[in-house]
Write a structure and sequence with these properties.
Strand content: 15-25%
Shape: globular
Distance between the termini: 51 Å
Structural class: alpha+beta
Order of helices and strands: EHHEEH
Number of strands: 3
Low-confidence stretches: none
Largest sheet: 3 strands, antiparallel
Radius of gyration: 14 Å
Length: 70
């Protein structure tokens, strides 16, 4: 198996700008979230699939932040 282009769960969280616990939650509950392959005890995600998912699902604005005005 070629593992190039794959990232660990920790790296996936950093790449998406979310907490590690959220990665595991998304894997179980979000329809369409990129599913990992398991190598031993390690979950590996396709980097490009994660980036495509993030592009289709932009981060929400931070709570308490400035709201955009016209």
């Amino acid at each position: 198996m070629n593992l190039g282009g794959h990232v660990t769960s920790d790296q996936a969280a950093d790449l998406l700008g979310i907490k590690l616990a959220s990665v595991y939650l998304y894997v179980r509950r979000l329809k369409g979230f990129p599913q990992p392959v398991k190598v031993g005890r390690t979950l590996l995600f396709e980097r490009e699939a994660l980036l495509a998912w993030r592009e289709a699902h932009p981060k929400r604005a931070a709570k308490g932040g400035e709201s955009p005005t016209a």
